[in-house]
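Exam revision sheet. Question 4 asks you to relate a sequence to its structure. Input first:
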Amino acid sequence: MKPSFRVLRPFGALALACTAAVELAAQDCPFSLGPDTTVCHGANLLLQAPVGVLELHWQNGFQSQTITADTTGLYWCTATFLQPGANMVSNGDFSGGDSAFTTDFTLGTGGTWGQLSTEGTYAITTDPSLVHTNFSACGDHTGGGQMLVVNGSPLPNANIWCQTVQVTPNTYYAFSAWLMSCTPQNPAMMDFQVDGVSLGTPLLASSTTCAWDEFYAIWNSGNATSATICIINQQLAADGNDFALDDISFTPLCTFTDSIHVTVLPPAPGLDAGPGGALCPEDSATVMATLVPASWPLDDVVYTWSTGADSPSITVHDPGTYTVTATGLCLDAQATVVFLPDTCTLPPTELWMPNVFTPNGDGSNDQFGPVVNGPPDGFRMEVRNRWGQRVFSTDRVERRWDGRANNGVVPDGTYYWVVHYGNRHADGQVTQETLTGSVTLLGGR
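Answer key, structure tokens:
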């Protein structure tokens, strides 16, 4: 594979042409678009690409600094950066003086106007006016440092600056340098080459002195393990053609991709607490709160009832209005259910007691207890033997004695019972009644 070059044009204000006056700082390759995120229906998430990129692409092909995520899906961004601290050029800012580079020009030795009185000479200085009295007084590109100042010459294809660097095969490198005119006449036209091949259109210096412009291009190493980078002035005028170079860099690029899954929720559901109804005295009802529709995808729902309960369902014992709220991410719903009072008149109580039972396990008359028609309003029964010892008791009308006591079978014979119950009358009134009697137990097991 042969080496190649390209100019990266990222987006908007950061678009980089060969002559763009934009300086991008190197930064670490890894970046994050943030954790996977859920957003409410009708909302969106603004995704931010990293700053300082040379080139970026979103999953939809966009190259903008931001995109809006407004539908559920996977969003990703691939960005290319300068590798931090990886400039392959030595002494590119000339802080080391006249070293680490080769040139076809000669170091100025002085004359009528100073060190660079002769065409085709150069100097390392902090101010062009210090090496030629007719050059403008200018600072270096970053301020306070040194630069390479040249009195141009009509010699064609003369190398102003060259350096050979080691490169990694199949890697992209950013070649950058800054150019400034020291005199306004016949500005320099700088050609930037790698291994003798020009990287794009030469950079014409500004006719305004002390105005720095950047050359910028991307080069791919192919199979190469070294590269000779050179800067050549194509301006051959003898008059003017005086310039400065500074901050030369040849930096490898790195590329990183990060992704984020965005879930956009459906419209928030409503809440239903059921139809309510009438509630009889001493009765209860179970009320269930349900989301409508029930297909809400999140499980962070918290239910809060006006009773203080925090479960989806409650049991109510009294008539009244009951309110429930369901809250969670993107959810805030409320429902109300009403229970009205009802007298719920019950049939009159009819209760009588058998006088014999046979707990022999034949399935017939095996248990002793009341026979009722119409539930009593409260009930208690006790059974005692002839010595007055209690052998059975219950406060539930449906519970019956099976002829056993203390985990054993009692003997045949006569047992005495007493029943207390609330006798419900046809007019709805209730009177407290007490009945007593005896029962004969025969054929116990």
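Marking note for examiners. The longest strand covers residues 242-264.
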